[in-house]
Amino acid sequence: MSEIRATHTLALAPVIPPASTVDGFVQEFLNNLNFRQGVALSSSSQNDRYLALAQTVRDYLMARWLEDQRAQFERQSKGVCYLSAEYLLGRQLDNNLLASDLGGIAAEAMSVCGIDLDELRGLEVEPGLGNGGLGRLAACFVDSLATMSVPSIGYGIRYEYGIFRQTFVDGQQAEQPDQWLALGSPWEFPHPEAAQIVSFGGHTERYQDGDVERTRWIPAWNVQAVPYNYMVPGYHNGRVNTLRLWSAVATHAFDLRIFNSGDYAEAVRAQTFASNISKVLYPEDSTPQGKELRLQQQYFFVAASVSDFLDHHLADGFDLTKLPDRVIFQLNDTHPVIAVPELMRVLVDVRGLEWDAAWEITRGCFAYTCHTLLPEALEEWSVDLLGRLLPRHLEIIYRINEEFLAEVRETYGDDELRIRNMSIIAEHPERAIRMAYLATVAGAKVNGVAELHSQLLRDKVLPDFAAFFPGKFTNVTNGVTPRRFLRLANPGLSSLITEAVGPGWETDLDRLQGLEAYADDAGFRTAFAEVKAQNKVRLRHELLARDGLVVGEDHLMDVMVKRLHEYKRQMLKVLHIVSLYEGIASGRVAAAEVTPRTFIFGAKAAPGYAMAKRIIHLINAVGSVINDDPRVEGRLKVLFPPNYNVTLAERVIPAADLSEQISLAGKEASGTGNMKFALNGALTIGTDDGANVEIRRLVGDENFFLFGMTEPEVEALWSTGYRPGEFYQADEDLRRALDLIASGAFSGGDRSTFEPVVSNLLYDDRFMVLADFAEYIRAQREVDAAYADQDAWNRAAILNVARCGFFSSDRSMRDYINGIWHTPPAL
Ligand code: 26V
Questions:
Q1: Element (H or E) spanning 216, and its range?
Q2: How far is the CA of 89 from the centre of ligand 1 (A)?
Q3: Which PANTHER family match (predicted)?
Q4: What's the Cα-to-Cα distance from 377 to each of 371, 500, 661, rounded to whole Å?
Q5: Which of 87, 248, 459, 794 could make a disulfide contact with 278, Cβ separation 3.0–4.6 Å?
Q6: Is the CB of 380 under 6 A from ligand 1?
């Protein structure tokens, strides 16, 4: 081992990488084009050029990467293994050019070759290996860890198909497979030689090992987990961390004998079966067969990751009782929680430790982050399924539960109700493992993702556990990386910030406070407004080219981008729009009196979530009627570009004036889009929910449009009985808006199309849209009034930027490091 490392250092640590000058960059680029792509510049396709450019950047980072992997091993200091089923990375080229500070050189080098760098940028298909906020958070966190030089590795799954590509057919969502690998993936490095075997099924048996009885698992089948490494470069610090994503392949090559006999399908059956495990990212909901595959995915990636760490990252002869001083496995939601019994299995069955010693180690090696409050989003695995797929793990979970409940009994006596409530095993409606409980029992710490969420987690979701484990529960408010979401996405604002507060704010975002003084500087406000206007122009070009959509000129840009879910209440936004339109269409309001607004939606619905898909259909239908109605005089526009993703977010957010964060209080764990908008100088209209609470506290009430019930008010209304019909009867605007939808005005006169949406709001709305409608409209009128005074608006927008430095994911990482991980940077 050590000899190989020495060779690495000798061979691959040139002092100055050749690509660090324009000439060198051109040379490397042409070499890559000729020798890796096998084409001459004159005959190369744009894709060849993109790949050669990516390879040039990648090679530039390579020496540092290898050096950092070596140094991390040599140091053997404590590090984080971030376990996440999702990483929503966004495009790599731009980010890696920025991190390595090669942007300027690359642009010049490309122009020397007669190539437009921006065009190549646009070719990259982003790896969409996540559903939404949770996956994007993981990507922000690995970016911050690299930038802060924290020893860490991200583990996950290399889905062959990421989140589906959304198109609209007659206004309805259609899902296309996301072929992100189709044109080659220059950012990944497969390492088949480091593959792990992951087993499933079978049974367990006891055997005698001297005078101790032990258990062995006799699995029925296994697959190979092949790691693909991705570079995670820190920002301007020469650091390159690793993201290691696992791909599933069959352990046996296909059966040549069967193949020769002509049964081609049977010959490759094992391969097809195995590769299904990493075939596709799960949208949030799924079928029973789908569920089994999802558990396979979860076990697949955590088993491979735990073994990878134990086998390849620990020094020879490492004393496993010291493991908690060497690593913390951070569980990103419940998806990787099966890692807990897996580590126990490895320690007890494979490494031969006593149960108690193994449990002591395991309890010190995990921490759990919860990302939701919706009970239906807390994962449970049926005992039947888990026992079939992972029989040994089920036994281990039973024993963990038995010992845990014995401790509970010691504290509370035979309080059966409490015991049932705290049991890791639910008995109804079927026997199932509560993964959040398992994570809570095993984790050294449990955290929520915003102050309000962490408090509700303690008080409402896991109150018995909070009482039983004092000190275990904590908060870490989410954050976003300022590199991607400010520096890259908003170059205009970034230059302005640098001029005002000096360089370096990208890694020290509290320095945005320095902008505070500039809010009162008229010249700065003008420059700030100019940047926002430029960003709107950029967005206008983008949406026209991408989707043929036309953004209104000089409009207030009112943006709601996030997954489509009833709790997020896109319907409240729709009702507002319909209400404005109804005023004009009925002749009660002159179009000229309405503040010109472009409403931009971006949202994917889980393919099996019928109500969410209907709401998408309705938004598109409302858009096509309003956009085409001459009475509106172009003063309202409703745009819904399909396939909202990280790339589109980077264009939309910097152009926004108004950020819609309008979930029912107590339902949105944190939100992270809310932070991105505020940092880019949009004002928020929002409820007292998730991180909105902290945003409002920081930016000040006068720079935030608050509306709606608080979480205790929501609870109170529920307990006295929520009757949406009463709100409908009492509010004329609301009645008119709902009636217009029900009348078929947006469905060619057909009343049935959107009837389920209307009925849901009137009779069965868990998310109390109608209860908050009046307040929302009131707040939107305040928005109109505030927007009329552009100078005051810009001042408020600047203060939003100045006061949101707290929401850097670097700060989130510091909070995890100080409160949970205890993994200082290795500088
Ligand atoms: C999962 C499910 C599954 C069953 C159907 C309903 C449903 C609804 C939501 C979810 C997502 C749960 C996990 C998640 O993505 N949470 C998000 O995590 C973000 C990062 O912490 C946070 O900002 C968002 O508020 C939170 O929704």
A1: strand 212-218
A2: 17
A3: GLYCOGEN PHOSPHORYLASE, MALTODEXTRIN PHOSPHORYLASE
A4: 9, 44, 20
A5: 248
A6: no
pTM for the structure as a whole? 0.96
Nearest alpha carbon, ligand 1 atom 24: 671
Q: What are phi and psi of 382, to 5 degrees?
A: -65, 140
| pLDDT (tens digit per residue) in 624-682 | 999 999 999 999 999 999 999 999 999 999 999 999 999 999 999 999 999 999 999 99
Instruction: From 371, 604, 613, 694, give the residue whose CB has the most ligand 1 atoms within 8 Å, as the site to mutate.
Output: 371
Q: Residue 235 carries which DSSP code?
A: S
Catalytic residue, candidates 49, 158, 244, 371: 371
Q: 149-175 burial string, b = 16+ CB within 10 Å, else e?
A: bbbbbbbbbbbbbbbbbbebeebebeb
Task: Tell me the per-residue pLDDT of 81-122, one tens digit each, with 9 for 90 and over.
Answer: 999 999 999 999 999 999 999 999 999 999 999 999 999 999
Please give the backbone phi and psi of residue 437, each rounded to the nearest 5 degrees, phi first: -70, -40
Q: What per-residue confidence (pLDDT) applies to 371? A: 97
CB of 478 shorter than 6 A to ligand 1:
yes
For residue 425, the CA-to-ligand 1 centroid distance in Å is 23
pLDDT in tens, 52-91: 999 999 999 998 999 989 998 899 899 999 999 999 999 9
Distance 697 CA to ligand 1 centre (A): 24
Nearest CA to ligand 1 atom 16: 371
